[in-house]
Design goal:
By secondary structure, the protein is mainly α. The chain is 66% helix and 0% strand. The longest helix is centred in the N-terminal third of the chain and has 17 residues.
């Protein structure tokens, strides 16, 4: 470590910490930041909090992160306080270092935006997310819209993206396709990958604009080039259907695989379909079951219905009537229409000759009716709560 005279400014320690962090020498960075924190410098409190939230197991300590963010919030200037409050909200939202408490998270996000003399677009995004989803408060699309607009007015790409989504679906405001397009285009101009995906979906649907599969494909490709998993899934759907591109089920399969690597639920579902039906790959019931299970575990509703069918027939897994019923019931609860029919059939099985009815209900033709529609997604709609903490070393 470079030597620092005790009489020198804390800024020198801070500079050494920054250099150490860049070189991934986190122990040295922590040591220097701690020296600055001992001088009661709020910026050091804040950055210690960020470092203790690191994915590095050797330094991760959410309890200390809470402690230092609170110190930063109590003693810092407006810029430090607003970011510290936002990050405390994030920790309460995720239950890291504290008991999970969405009401507390909402409170801290609100404190972040209420700091006089500071602007915090991320805190507005997080507040919008909470009001949109009714977390820590009741659902209020108008308040969500207000916060997303505040973030957009600060030049935040997520703010424009979320405004576009709400204008497109008329949530908290009158449906306005032109404003939706304007917001999405402003968002992509700022480099937002979700907005590229949304624009692709708009051109694919053809509701706000003339349907143009080639333009949709181009937007999805742009999002995929930026690493967006949902876009890989959507490109797979277009290759499978031959929409805006020459049909190629092998390429579709490859795109679904790429998206599924990071657990994209719709891609996992689509891989399940392709393995089950032998599309773009040899037929494999066990692989189909594996991917339907991954999709269901990550929230895909249709996958619950397909898992129910596989348990009912004993395809890719041992036959199990109870699990079939369980998955059909879950699919019904999640709004999958055909699952109600399947659930009713399960009930009839328990009241009728098992052998004869089961053979009829879960025949191959029945399987063909399940999950034939390729799942296309629009990047999850409203973007998720800001997981990343505000930047380290202001």
């Amino acid at each position: 470590m470079a030597r620092v005279d005790e009489n020198n400014s804390w800024i020198e320690y801070f500079s050494i910490a920054l250099e150490a962090h860049r070189n991934q020498d986190y122990t040295k960075a922590l040591e220097c930041l701690q020296k600055v924190a001992d001088m009661k410098i709020p910026e050091a409190y804040y950055n210690l909090g960020v470092m203790y939230c690191s994915d590095q197991d050797t330094i991760q300590d959410y309890n200390k992160a809470v402690e230092y963010f609170q110190k930063a919030a109590d003693t810092g200037n407006a810029g430090v306080r607003t970011m510290a409050y936002n990050n405390l909200g994030d920790l309460y939202f995720n239950g890291q270092g504290v008991e999970q408490d969405h009401s507390k998270a909402l409170e801290y996000f609100q404190r972040a935006v209420d700091v006089k003399g500071a602007k915090n677009a991320l805190a507005h995004i997080n507040l919008g997310f909470m009001h949109y989803n009714g977390l820590g408060t009741y659902k209020d699309y108008k308040k969500a819209l207000e916060h997303f607009k505040n973030a957009a007015d600060m030049g935040d790409s997520k703010g424009y993206n979320n405004l576009g989504f709400m204008y497109y679906y008329g949530q908290g405001t009158v449906k306005d396709c032109q404003k939706a397009l304007e917001c999405y285009h402003k968002s992509v101009d700022l480099g937002n990958v979700e907005a590229y995906n949304h624009l692709g979906f708009i051109y694919y649907q053809g509701k706000c604009v003339s349907k143009d599969n080639q333009q949709a494909f181009a937007y999805y490709q742009k999002a995929a080039d930026m690493g967006d998993a949902s876009a890989y899934n959507n490109l797979g759907c277009m290759y499978e259907d031959g929409s805006g591109v020459v049909k190629n089920v092998q390429k579709a399969f490859a795109y679904f695989q790429e998206a599924a690597k990071v657990g994209e639920p719709n891609a996992c579902y689509n891989l399940g379909r392709m393995y089950r039906d032998g599309i773009g790959t040899p037929q494999d019931d066990e692989k189909a079951f594996e991917y339907f299970k991954k999709a269901a575990d990550n929230g895909n509703a249709r996958a619950h219905n397909d898992l129910g069918a596989m348990y009912a027939r004993g395809c890719g897994t041992p036959q199990d009537d109870e699990k079939a019923f369980e998955y059909f019931k879950k699919a019904v609860d999640m709004g999958v229409m055909e699952a109600q029919h399947n659930l009713d059939l399960c009930i009839k099985i328990n009241k009728t000759s098992q052998k004869e009815l089961k053979w009829f209900v879960f025949s191959g033709s029945y399987m063909e009716s399940i999950g034939r529609i390729a799942e296309m997604v629009i990047a999850g709609g409203i973007v998720e709560l800001g997981k990343a903490l505000c930047k380290i070393f202001m």
